[in-house]
Write a structure and sequence with these properties.
Structural class: alpha+beta
Shape: elongated
Low-confidence stretches: 3-10
Order of helices and strands: HHHEEEEEHEEEEEEEEE
Distance between the termini: 39 Å
Number of helices: 4
Largest sheet: 8 strands, antiparallel
Strand content: 25-35%
Radius of gyration: 19 Å
Helix content: 10-25%
Strand order of the largest sheet: 9-5-6-7-11-3-2-13
Mean pLDDT: 84
Number of strands: 14
Length: about 230
């Protein structure tokens, strides 16, 4: 049974949003195989990548109302104090923004950074420049959520990237969220921005790898100050 359990624990479920894409890749691979066999094997490799892209693993989320959890797998690409997007109506004061960039090999299921109730969902059409660029926060297509938390409203914004052309969000205004709960997905490669009010201290550094639903991005009410990191 240990071998069965090992295999079961190694195989990660595919999110239902990916079923049809995996099926399309598989069928196209079979068709290409009739034209030239090597194309079929290349197609199978791409099919496996597609299933990997839409993976949806379970995560262990810290239960603490003072913690802000990463909404995405990827690399922390920016930590800055900036104005939040106008469509979120988060006020006229700058907020702490922590950005997590997802490449095409990261898991793209998005999770709530904190527990609360969604008070606003705001979609905005835009461009598809490289999501790693700072201007992507203002110029790219995006979908933002305002979550009313114990510490006041925070914003989390799904940003389409250079390759991504589809933002999915299956939560609505007045829906309650738990920290780490799945709320959306972006296809294929993108970025998540979290906007936090004054009094929040970052707990990550630029360049650090974040895990959705597990990595603590920031903390409220801490006197420890910003985290200091070094490369090892």
């Amino acid at each position: 049974m240990s071998l069965v359990n090992t295999i079961r624990n190694t195989l990660v479920p595919v999110h239902k949003e990916g079923y049809r894409f995996v099926a399309i890749f598989f069928v196209v691979s079979l068709v290409l195989g009739f034209l030239w066999e090597p194309l079929m094997w290349i197609g199978f490799v791409l099919t496996a990548w597609c299933a990997y892209f839409f993976r949806d693993p379970e995560r262990m989320t810290p239960i603490d109302d003072d913690l802000v959890i990463s909404p995405a797998d990827g690399r922390v690409s920016s930590i800055a104090t900036v104005m939040p997007p106008e469509e979120l109506n988060l006020g006229s004061e700058p907020m702490l923004r922590i950005s997590v960039f997802m490449n095409v090999f990261n898991c793209h299921v998005n999770r709530a950074p904190m527990a609360g109730t969604i008070s606003r969902v705001a979609y905005r059409a835009g461009q598809f420049v490289n999501a790693e660029l700072d201007k992507a926060s203002h110029e790219n297509e995006r979908n933002g959520l305002v979550i009313e938390t114990k510490h006041g409203p925070i914003g989390v914004v799904q940003i389409a990237g250079l390759v991504a052309r589809r933002i999915l969000c299956w939560k609505y205004e007045n829906n309650a969220l738990e920290a780490g709960e799945r709320f959306g997905l972006i296809r294929f490669g993108s970025r998540l921005d979290v906007f936090l009010p004054e009094g929040t201290e970052p707990r990550v550094s630029v360049g650090q790898t974040a895990v959705a639903g597990e990595t603590v991005l920031a903390e409220f009410g801490s006197a420890k100050g910003p985290v200091i990191s070094r490369r090892a």
